[in-house]
Amino acid sequence: MAVTGILLTCLAALLIYLAVRLYSKYPSSKVRALVEKIPGPPARPIVGHAHIFKRGAEFYEQLHTLCKEYGHKGIIRAWLGYHCLVVATNANAAEVLLKSSTHMTKSFLYDFIRPWLGTGLLMLISTGSKWHARRKMITPTFHFKILEDFLEVFNEQSTVMTKHLEKMAGKSKGFDVIPFVTLCALDIICDTAMGRHVNAQAHSDSEYVQAIYRISDLIMERIRRPWLWPDGIYRLLPAGKEHERLLTVLHSFTNEVIRERTAEWERHLASDSDKDSATTDKPSLIGGRKRLAFLDMLLHASAKHQLTVEDIREEVDTFMFEGHDTTSAAISWAIHLIGANPEVQKKVHDELDQIFGQSDRLVTMDDIKQMKYLECVVKESLRLFPSVPMMAREIAEDCTINGFFVPKGSTGVIQTSVIHRDPDYFPEPEAFKPERFTNENSVGRHPFCYIPFSAGLRNCIGQKFAMIEEKVLLSSILRHFQIASLQKRGDLMPSGEIILRSQNGINIKLEKR
């Protein structure tokens, strides 16, 4: 009985502590009254709207439903416990958040990603001078000449993927294409960014890939539940313990990549011919490679005392995640849409036949430039299924969005997947029409109505890399196969857990051309 009494006392103390903490963070009644003028569903005391948010594909569908119901002013409000969220649902609202140099900091909600990705550049958690220094340092990695060098890797790995897909062609049952594309993208990012061959396509049960999927689910679930925010409580729960195990898997993978590359780098610096390379402005090629990897840039910066070992790990983790997961999701959605729209597929086939004829040669940069219709297909696919369906920014000072007061300390959420469906800019928004993105049809469009790679000062630094990769992989598939989608759009289950994926796969059939 004594033990039970102690436990109950501790539990009561914990609940009182949490209640006091939540109450102390609540905005004043005056501020809350102003926020309540923003359209949105009714909230409950303490929990706000946290109790209504669903999971997985149901959560993504729920967000779209709420935006349709309350987003007629281009902005809606919601509460996660004491914390105010304002959701931008049109281009004007998005512009306020993305164009501003004041609201550049990522929301505190990204703190839940920090244990995994730290403050790496691509997740945009870094701020101020650190962000500017990292951006300046990493930008040369995406110079056109370096991207051209990476084309060899894109071709090599897409050829491997195509050979695996040949084994699936002609089967009446069909298959899920996502694992094939994901492992190919992982091979590409490991080679181009890390300088390491991991042969992921030869090992379809990648523990690293599965860990990314699962930790993304856990992070989004925690974000939606304010009672899971305190670290001390979360670590005691089964989900918290699973989170720690997954972090070990993910960090072990990248630590091994860094360790191997660092050893090679140190051997390079110790060689007689390259002793002074650490003092030059640019890193030199190592290990007999034909091209520099992203990691080489970081190691060079480390040698010049610009980055710590932890800094390197943060950037590597971020590149590994962003560099393969967003791209593989985009390609997978495009494959579905192409396979579901035979008239679009024919136009892509015609364009590729005109470029390559009957030749089985590798893709060149000149070929990439000629894939104009395929680029429209990719862009329209990203409109309907943006790899990152939402972004968040901290409101650094009181501001006005679409005529509504938004208080400092709130979180501004840019709901990309809703903004992309604004009929003012995209008539028949649910229709798949690649022609929307021809040069002539894109003239005069609001610069923030289409933002698959974000926009403003902190737009995606790797968007050119991603577009080239997507063109190479899709063209490789379509030069060899006819695609038939086995799911209707309504059968798909988009799940916006950090990255927009299909919860029930992308099932297709392939026939050799």
TrEMBL record:
Transferase listed as a keyword: no
One Pfam family, short name: p450
Keywords in alphabetical order: Endoplasmic reticulum, Heme, Iron, Membrane, Metal-binding, Monooxygenase, Oxidoreductase
Alphabetized InterPro entries for the sequence: Cyt_P450, Cyt_P450_CS, Cyt_P450_E_grp-I, Cyt_P450_sf, Cytochrome_P450_Monoox
Protein name: Cytochrome P450
Binding residues for heme: C460
GO molecular function (one): oxidoreductase activity, acting on paired donors, with incorporation or reduction of molecular oxygen
Keyword Heme: yes
PROSITE patterns given in the database record: CYTOCHROME_P450
GO CC terms: endoplasmic reticulum membrane
Compartments reported by the entry: Endoplasmic reticulum membrane
Protein family: Belongs to the cytochrome P450 family.
Cofactor: heme
SUPFAM superfamilies named among the record's database cross-references: Cytochrome P450
PANTHER family for this protein: CYTOCHROME P450 4C3-RELATED, CYTOCHROME P450 FAMILY 4
